[in-house]
Amino acid sequence: LLLTEEANAFLHFGCQAEAGSEWECPEEPIPGTVAFGDGKATRAQFAGQVRTTLQFKSKTCPGAIAFVLYVQGAGWEQWLKGSNGADFGIGLKAGGGATKSSEPGAEVAKNFVDAE
Q1: N or C: which terminus of the chain has fewer CB atoms within 10 Å of its end residue's CB?
Q2: pTM (2 decimals)?
């Protein structure tokens, strides 16, 4: 996907007790994010369309996050998801790690890190 300069890219995510569970907003607000209107998802805008950071305190860190990418331009929008329309997922702490349904997210995370 080639983005025009005016396009805005967002990480649209939900916190999960463990991979595959229901999406929830973070227990505590995360700087640079806004709650989405459904009460379950939160959004973080990518700076320069390429980077965003989520920081959780250890006591409120979810077991995993599930996410999709949302891109919005002048008069258009696009949702970017994994294979078969699945959410991406990343395990964040012991006990909440990736399951088979979220393995594509682990590969995405690795690609993000390798690109640095």
Answers
A1: C
A2: 0.77
What confidence tier does 47 reach under pLDDT thresholds 50, 70, 90?
confident
Indicate whether 2 belongs to any domain. Answer: no
Residue 3 lies in a domain: no
Per-residue model confidence (pLDDT) at position 97 = 52
Structural domains in the chain (count): 1
Average pLDDT of span 27-39: 92
Strands 42-45 and 8-16: antiparallel
